Hints:
79% helix
Amino acid sequence: MKIVNEKTPGYVLLSLWVLFTIVTLIWIAFASLSTSRAIMQGKVFTFPEGIHPENFARAWGANNISVFFFNSALYSVVGTFFSILISAPAAYVLARYTFIGDKAIKSGFIMAMSLPSIMIVLPLFSLATQLHLTGTKIILLILYSCMAVPFTTIFLITFFANLSKTYEEAAAIDGYSPMRTFWTIMLPLAQPGIVTVGVFNFMNIWNEYFMSLVFGSSSKNMSVGPGLKSVLASMQYTGDWGGLFAAVLIVFLPTFLIYVFLSEKIIAGVTGGGIKG
C-alpha cells in the first residue's frame, strides 16, 4: 500500500497531462470543421453553422500547406535515411572495437549533441553562402542528415553493445568478413533500435523550426514549422481560423500515425538497448 501511495502523485500528474492533451486535440479537431464565427463564440462542439470539411481542402491549397507538407516529408525521409546510413556503421565500430581515439570520438558526439543550433547557425550560413547553397533544399537536406548523426550514433552504440557476440563468432567461423557480418547479420538484428531512432529523427526533423526558417529563405523551401507561422500571420487578414486548425491537423497527422503504428517497435527499441543479449 505504501508503494501505491508513493506512486499516486505521479500517476495523477500523468493522467492530467494525458487528459489535457486529449481534450486539446479533440478541440482542434472540432475547430477544424467549424467556421471562424463558431470558434470565436466558443461553440466548436455544437456546430451552429454546420460541419465544414472544405476547411481541409482550402488549407491544403490556398495556404501552401501542401508545399510545406511535402518539403517536410522530403527533409524527414532523406535526413533520417542518411543519418542512419552514416551512423549505424560508425556506432557498430565504436561499440565493438577498441582503438586509439575511440573515447574521444564518443565524447565528441556527446558534445555535438549539447550544442544549441543558434551557436552554429552563423558559421553554417556563411559556409552555405560561399557554396551558393542558401535558399535551396539541398542545404537543408545536408544539415538535417548531419545534425542527426551524433544522437543516432550514441543511441545505436548502446544497442549494438548489448547484442550478443555469438552471432559474429559464428559468422567468422563461416568465413564472413567484419563488413559482411555487419550488413547481413548485425544490422538486421539491430532493427528495433534502428526503427526507434529513425522515428525519433523523423519527428525531430518534421517538427524542426529554426534551421528551416534561416536556410529555407522562401516558402517553396520551408518545412511545416515556419510554414504554419506564415499561415498564422496571414490569419490577421483573412480570419480563416477553421482553415488554420485544419492545417494544424494535417501537419500533426503523419507523426501521430507513425507513432500509433510503430509504438511497439519504439518500446522494444528503447528497452532492448538496456538488455544484454
